Amino acid sequence: MGHPPRRTAEELDAADPLAWARDRFVVTDPDLVYLDGNSLGRLPAATPDFVDAVVRNQWGTGLVRTWHTWIDWAASLGDRLAEHVLGARPGEVVLSDSTSVNLYKLAAAVLAATPDRRTIVVDAGDFPTDRYIVQGLAAERGLTVRALASDIDTGLSLNSVAAAVDDDVALVVLSHASYRSGALNDMAAVNSLARKAGAVVLWDLSHTAGVLPVHLNASGADLAIGCTYKYLNSGPGAPAFLYARADLHPALRQPIWGWFGQRDQFRMGPDYDPAGGIGRFLVGTPPVLSLAAVDPALSVIEEAGVARIRDKSVRLGEFVLDLVPPGMRVASPVASDRRGGHVTLEHPDAWRICRALAGAGVICDYREPDRLRVGPAPLYTRFVDVWDAMDRLRDLLASRSYEQLDDAPGRVT
Amino acid sequence: MGHPPRRTAEELDAADPLAWARDRFVVTDPDLVYLDGNSLGRLPAATPDFVDAVVRNQWGTGLVRTWHTWIDWAASLGDRLAEHVLGARPGEVVLSDSTSVNLYKLAAAVLAATPDRRTIVVDAGDFPTDRYIVQGLAAERGLTVRALASDIDTGLSLNSVAAAVDDDVALVVLSHASYRSGALNDMAAVNSLARKAGAVVLWDLSHTAGVLPVHLNASGADLAIGCTYKYLNSGPGAPAFLYARADLHPALRQPIWGWFGQRDQFRMGPDYDPAGGIGRFLVGTPPVLSLAAVDPALSVIEEAGVARIRDKSVRLGEFVLDLVPPGMRVASPVASDRRGGHVTLEHPDAWRICRALAGAGVICDYREPDRLRVGPAPLYTRFVDVWDAMDRLRDLLASRSYEQLDDAPGRVT
Hints:
Chains A, B: This is Kynureninase. Two copies of one chain form a homodimer. Chain A is an alpha/beta fold. Chain A is built from 13 helices and 13 strands. Chain A has two domains: 6-45 and 305-404, Aspartate Aminotransferase, domain 1; 71-301, Aspartate Aminotransferase, domain 2 (3-Layer(aba) Sandwich), CATH 3.40.640. In chain A, strands 2-8-7-6-5-3-4 form a seven-stranded mixed beta sheet, with helices on both faces. A four-stranded antiparallel beta sheet of chain A has the order 9-10-13-12. A two-stranded parallel sheet of chain A has the order 1-11. In chain A, helix 1 (6-14) runs antiparallel to helix 13. The two termini of chain A are 33 Å apart.
């Protein structure tokens, strides 16, 4: 269709079954268009009071006694994530550490369990920490990293994964959605071909958890990790999650033998004896204040339902595509079923455009080398937000006002 | 001296140069005597508003833009810890992960740097996570763990450390103060004998940081880790710290190659290239809400000064010793210069006594097999608190009312 008028956006918002959800978030600057929920989700309206009660009441008044409550959160929040977001069973998901540390633990556990296989397959275009963690594991063990070339716009081809996964491959580490383009990998297909080759697949769900239904069990997924601060809205650096299918627990021993992974932790026995279930993947004391913020954030998602969230996400993404202004090239799959929650646009001056756009009240983000990520979050992004953002982007490109900014690289992008 | 009257405690409080500091903490139940600051420190009065501002303003309004601020906290809080608490230089301390993960990272880095040495020395009576982490590292690498027998009351003898550290020892992992007895290890002496043998020492400061002056540089310490939720009052599961002496940075590469340890992190380059300084020991995105709580907690300690804190800690500990009721045996070093912040008492029924004491409004904690830990925290524990606690303990022992409780082990102690 041609360039839709703002009225179209207003009509889409009026008919939006998730319109109510925006009120579940704090929006202090109504003129700001926030399209970076794929990096840091907005603050849920219930979170400040929830966290404050944890601080004042549970810590301040309950003191150390509240550990009887806190001790269960990593697992109980994991169970909620499993049921409502990840398509997994109770006891298969737990909150713990950072995404990077969880990747390390699970990947190392697989490598220890399959010492005869000497290769790890990764996407050469995957998010840096995924690649770096694997590089470190491989370097220490003398393993080969098979880094598959992927298209920066459309992602990894299933054929290249199929060709790479042979009987020397212990582990395949892939992101469900590419951090740059949002291109989706076919989780079920990869799981199936890896299983035939005897390899284990570890999925990074950071860019899909909370914005589309993930079907870990139904797709035959072995292992997964992901952050909770993007579409899961749990706050900056909120604890990450990890998933391990129940039948894999006995064979997997992760290398960081911390006391939270110990069976009968407070017996404080002489030798490490890992807990029987998902608890064996825990390590140290969880950061309770940050963990607390996962709870109210999940409540909004549970109420909305990830299927409805995905439905709106697809329509928001298509609306972005309808509105891409001249001069920006779409650098994401155009087919919605091949794309996660964000749409990426390419421009040689993307870094300056991103900052100029922020000056015009539109927060997107920049990714090397020349990408502008547009990340509508269905729970709080309206169609008019997308329309206004693309309108301001259009003006900015027409005026070339961004050329007045310097081009020095940013420390944080 | 004989059993001092409560008036003595009141006089000590009246003369206490740190008496002002109690008002810097939230005390909602004035009848409760909290002697478990060695496990979870009290809530500083400034913390709720500080954390709330981070949640509402920095996250809620600033959104992803606040990462320009948050990105520096791990290092800037580390520098404050270095200067005011740990006796280290700027750039030698950083906040990161949990104590367990930090121990793993630093220990693994040492083992990788000294592959010809095949032994790790630990205290067989050290805190579980320290022993377990080392067991895991040793198991994976086929190394020997030399677990030194230590006295449950008085700790490890320097002679046994000296005898154990030979030229096959890569690493010595010790706690500065024993978690059970509070017995102190002589940091400078251990560092010196280890250096002569070519071994690296990694100190766990969890039970000393914030309650006595730690002199990492002056004692010639190589590496250290510790938590911030005990005497550092930063809240349940607050991020841990790690210290690495500056000259050791180039040789140490930790095994978890996460993107926060990468030089020029947001360039997102193809290969892991660790940051030049202390940043190379970082891994993933820090839990910002939990990290935030370190700031106001440190401010109180900076104002009080750890030397004054230690002075009061010693006097509080001696006051506990003066008041130990009949039936409890002192299970800590009686010499104050050999003891950290807490005093441990032994009784065959310590578990039931601990819970009965909680029912009488005195929170201590229990440690296997039969220990009651009494942990006065100088910033908020008054001498009358100690007096009242010991008085209630005396009554409880005289009445044997604790015998009415069941003796089933607790999940959390």
